[in-house]
Structure formats: structure tokens, C-alpha cells
Amino acid sequence: MELHHTLQLQDKLDDEELAHYLIADYHPDTAHDLYAYGASPDIAPLYIGTDLAELLEYSPYVIRVKSDDTLLNIFHTKAVSGGSWSGILISALAEIAFDDLITHLRQRLIMQFSGNKKGILHFQNPAVAHYFFGESDKRDTALWMGPITHISWYAFPYSAIQGVWCSVSNSLPIKAAELLSDTSNSSWIITPSQQMALEIQYDDKTLSRFFESISISVTDNVEWCNYRQYLNQAESLGLIDNTCIYRYLTLCRQYGKPAESLLKSSYLFSLTGSEKLQYLENTLRKDSLYVS
């Protein structure tokens, strides 16, 4: 995943070998804004002709964009300021027909996981794209992208990386002939790295709620990643409910990371959740007094 302080699309948008598209997430204003400010006839809701057709009114939209489009400026403003609707930008080889690209994206709407379970992948949502594309294995991302060469999004506030533009690239995109020869309509089977990436998203949601509960804002990447480690420690200790997890995170915030020897103590694992926290608090407080 590459990070940029500004939207680094000018060179890509001006590349005649590429075509560029905005995939806008659902919001009551989305369709109106795309049809009112979009300059391209290449526009379509993703859910048409899929198993999600009954949810058409909530469908994300895909529209072709160019560097001087008013719609692109509107998207940029909404992304940075947290406006009504959000989305991602993608680039594909210009030889890929719009209908073929839409077909590819529709095939990626449904993901299969844990055997035969299926779910909707909201890849157009930056909060999902940030993890699914940015945190998973590059090879898995490239296979998912197919004919897509670039994906860009603005990093949302509740993650380890915030306030910057992010992008991933596919150095070996599928050509038009290869795409047309792929007649598979099967769901995308989520890979282990993609599953792990979505688990990181879940953890970050937990951390965001914790930060909100104690009225703090964490914007430093290193500090956020430290909290991820604390959260993993809480899970390893068997702390399940949010009250216990938040209390453990508070202890780590106050005293720092507990020693590995303490966390792996056989005595600690013989205690209940509340007893573990009390024991940890007493030990950490005692150690801090000793050091001071």
C-alpha cells in the first residue's frame, strides 16, 4: 500500500492507455450527484443483474471519470471532509470495455468464506477497501483486481493510517482477451490474508470505540499499532466482553505493555477475567512504584 498526502492520480488520469472510474458507495445523494455532475455516459449501478438486484435502491454506482471532471473534484472534497457519500477510484486498461469491467466488479460483490458461507463485500467503501486491499497479501489483491491496474481511496479517521490518500497497484492486469475468456460466475473465495485483513478491521473498530469511550484521539501510526498488540494480548488472556477489554487497554495505556513473563504466568490463567485484571493492575502498579 502506497501513501500520499495528495491525490496522486494526475499521471494516471492523463495516461491514454488507462480508463478511470469512480465507484461511489450508497447514500441518498449518490445517484443524484453522479448523474448531475458526471460527464460520462458510462455509468451503472452495480447491483443490477446480480443476486443483490432486490437491493437496487442501495446499490453503489460506477462511473467513468477524467481529470477535469467536476465530479472528481466533488469526490475529492467529500473524501477529505467526510462528506455525505464516499467511494474509491480505480483504473483499468482502456481496452477493457465498460460492460466487461462492470461484469468483473459484479462477480466480486459476493465473497465466500468459512466453507459455503457467503457475504457481500462492500469494496467500494473506503473503510473496507483500506483493509481488504491495503492489509492483505499483494498477490491476493492482484488476483482480485483482475483487469484493474490501480485502486485509490482516502484513509478514514478510525484506523492506524489516517488523513492520507492510499493506493495499491497491479503490475500484471488481465488483458481484454483474457477477461472475455473467463466465464466463471463463482463467488470470490476469500483468502487467509484477506480474512486476516478484515479481522484487523474488526479490531480497529473495537479500538475506535475504546478511544471514544475515554475521549481521546489516536492519530499516530505507531501508537495505534501498539494498541492493536494490547488488544491481541487481551484476547490471548481470554478477556471477551468489552468491559474487561477496555479495562485491560486502560491498564496498558497507564503502565505500558506488561512483561511477557507476567502475561504467560500459569497463575494468571487460573484466574477469572476480573481476577486477572485485578492481579495485573496490582502487579503493574507495584512495579511502577518500584521503578520510580
Question: Could you explain how this protein is built, in words?
Answer:
It holds the Pfam family DUF4123. This is DUF4123 domain-containing protein. It comes from Shewanella psychropiezotolerans. InterPro entries: DUF4123. This protein has 292 residues and is of the alpha+beta class. The chain folds into 2 domains: 2-190, no CATH class; 220-291, no CATH class. Helices cover 45% and strands 16% of the residues. It is built from 12 helices and 10 strands. The strands form 2 sheets. It has a 7-stranded antiparallel β-sheet, sandwiched between helices. Strands 7-6-10 form a 3-stranded mixed β-sheet, with no helix packed on it. It starts with a strand and ends with a helix. The model has no long low-confidence stretch (mean pLDDT 89).
Which key features would you list for this structure?
10 strands; 3-stranded mixed β-sheet; 7-stranded antiparallel β-sheet; 12 helices; alpha+beta; 292 residues
Lay out the secondary structure.
Elements: E1 2-4, H1 10-13, E2 18-24, H2 30-37, E3 43-45, E4 61-65, H3 70-81, E5 87-93, H4 98-107, E6 110-113, E7 117-120, H5 126-132, H6 138-145, E8 148-154, E9 165-169, H7 176-181, E10 188-189, H8 192-213, H9 221-236, H10 242-255, H11 260-263, H12 273-291
Helix pairs in contact: 5-8, 9-10, 10-12
Estimated radius of gyration:
22 Å
Roughly what fraction of the amino acids lie in strands? 15-25%
Rough shape?
A: elongated
Order of helices and strands: EHEHEEHEHEEHHEEHEHHHHH
| Order of the strands making up the biggest sheet | 1-9-8-5-2-4-3
Put simply, the count of helices is 12
Domain DUF4123: 20-138
InterPro entries: DUF4123
Protein name: DUF4123 domain-containing protein
